[in-house]
Design a protein that fits this description.
It is a single chain. The chain is mainly alpha-helical. It has one domain (3-455): Up-down Bundle (Amino acid/polyamine transporter I), CATH 1.20.1740.10. Helices cover 80% and strands 0% of the residues. It contains 17 helices and no strands. Helix 4 (89-122) crosses helix 14 and helix 8 crosses helix 11. The radius of gyration is 21 Å and the shape is globular. The N and C termini lie far apart (50 Å). Mean pLDDT is 89; it is low at 1-5.
């Protein structure tokens, strides 16, 4: 059965679509990846560049993906084939690959979050937070909780758009926001937290000037990553939209929520760390777990805060995971007419298998395969996919894009041309520069860390 024969679902409400998109954007991208990127890339210097890229490329790029998805009512592969011809379906295939890779290690991290949530009730990580992380990060336990997290994700996506994803995000995303606001308010009261605010919010231009080659690709990649751009999520979610939706308004709401929650995450994490005398987290994907667990062990009501934080973290991680899985499942359902529950189970199983090396291989306790997957997918493949879609729409299908954007808005006038030229020049230029720097960074990681680990 072809995609043309498949009756596609749609969002029941606008709120469902907004919360699903926000949930995809918020999740692990903001609560796990954002703090350790800030800690690794110079604190406020990274935050400044991240906000710059959100403003410069976030809204224009999201509008591109929304117009493609809604115009075609297809999955990422079918959408790009319909817009650009058969050759462009392989770019959609790249999105499928990106979602597959990212979810494979996200699921392992989601398993860590579940373990930490349980550990908050028992105080399991209070004695030695670093030893606790090394114990649960790789090995059989990591594999088991990777399987549990993946099973939860599969269960939600298998139920479909309205009864699965939309219903889940309407419960999950508001609860995440409420808990985060409460934690941020509590963080203000912590003695010693002021240094955390200074580190996070006071721009250090000296760091930016000296470390820009590392900060720029990390910030641009994070901006794209946290908004779920360049991986087919927003194309897929927009394909379930009606023609009367105002895409610009919806994009603004989603970006506003996402950026606000990213900033809020820092307003929670860094005051907690500095109040506990830990300081900014050391670089690495496990740093936020070790540092925060250590902080909760040191401050008053730490275990209660741990239950709230890691519980919220688990819900947010799940909201991201379901969006990534939906990209791949939508492709199987649209293009091959597969039964949704069957497709979800098969694809979820494949993603689980790809995540097995992440769960089992470590370098002295450090799950090094995460960096191998994350830099490749989030800073290289994701940016390549983003560049290609921007080129396809802004340079070859500008009139079509303006026409689609005008539906639900009305006449665009000069704003339509301004949007197209923003995508044609600054957005693509920034992504190209970031891609070049990311390739250099990945080469350094492979030569300095991964290859010595494998050969040693």
């Amino acid at each position: 059965m072809s995609s043309l024969d498949t009756i596609r679902e749609s969002w029941a409400t606008r709120a469902g679509f907004i919360l699903a998109a926000v949930g995809s954007a918020v999740g692990l991208g903001n609560i796990w990846r954002f703090p350790f990127q800030v800690g690794q890339e110079g604190g406020s210097a990274f935050l400044l560049m991240y906000l710059f890229f959100i403003l410069l490329i976030g809204l224009p790029a999201m509008l591109v993906e929304f117009t493609v998805g809604r115009r075609t009512n297809r999955n990422a592969v079918g959408a790009l084939r319909k817009i650009g011809g058969r050759a462009w379906q392989y770019v959609g295939g790249l999105f499928i690959l990106i979602g597959f890779i990212i979810l494979s290690y996200y699921s392992v991290i989601g398993g860590w979050v579940l373990r930490y949530f349980g550990g908050s009730f028992t105080g399991g990580y209070t004695a030695d937070s670093e030893a606790y992380f090394f114990e649960i990060a790789t090995g059989f336990d990591a594999l088991l909780f990777h399987a549990i997290f993946m099973a939860l994700t599969v269960g939600i996506v298998a139920l479909g758009i309205k009864q699965g994803i939309e219903l889940a995000v309407k419960l999950m995303v508001p609860s995440v926001i409420v808990i985060m606001v409460g934690l941020a308010i509590y963080a203000v009261t912590l003695p010693g937290g002021t240094e955390g605010y200074t580190y996070y919010l006071s721009p250090d231009f000296d760091v930016l000037a000296s470390e820009w080659r590392s900060i720029v690709p990390a910030a641009a990649g994070q901006a794209f990553f946290t908004l779920s751009l360049g991986m087919g999520v927003m194309i897929t979610y927009a394909s379930y939209l009606s023609k009367d939706r105002n895409l610009a308004e919806d994009s603004g709401v989603i970006i506003g929520f996402d950026t606000g929650i990213a900033i809020l995450t820092g307003l929670i994490v860094f005051p907690l760390l500095f109040a506990a005398g830990i300081g900014a987290a050391d670089p690495g994907p496990g740093a936020i777990f070790v540092a925060l667990a250590g902080a909760f062990a040191e401050i008053q009501y730490g275990l209660v805060l741990g239950v709230l934080f890691f519980g919220m973290f688990a819900v947010a991680a799940l909201s991201s995971a379901i969006s990534l899985l939906e990209v791949v499942v939508s492709y199987a359902v649209d293009e091959y007419g597969m039964n949704r529950p069957v497709a979800t189970g098969i694809i979820g199983g494949g993603i689980f298998l790809l995540g097995v090396p992440v769960a089992l291989i470590s370098d002295g306790g450090n799950p090094i395969v995460i960096d191998l997957y994350d830099i490749l997918a989030a800073e290289i493949l994701l940016v390549i996919g983003g560049i290609l879609v921007m080129v396809l729409v802004a340079w070859f299908n500008a009139d079509l894009a303006r026409d689609e954007l005008s539906k639900g808005i009305g006449r665009l006038g000069a704003l339509g041309s301004l949007w197209i030229w923003l995508v044609r020049v600054p957005v693509i230029a920034v992504l190209l520069i970031s891609l070049g720097l990311a390739f250099l960074g990945y080469y350094e990681f492979l030569s300095d860390e991964f290859i010595p680990f494998v050969s040693g």
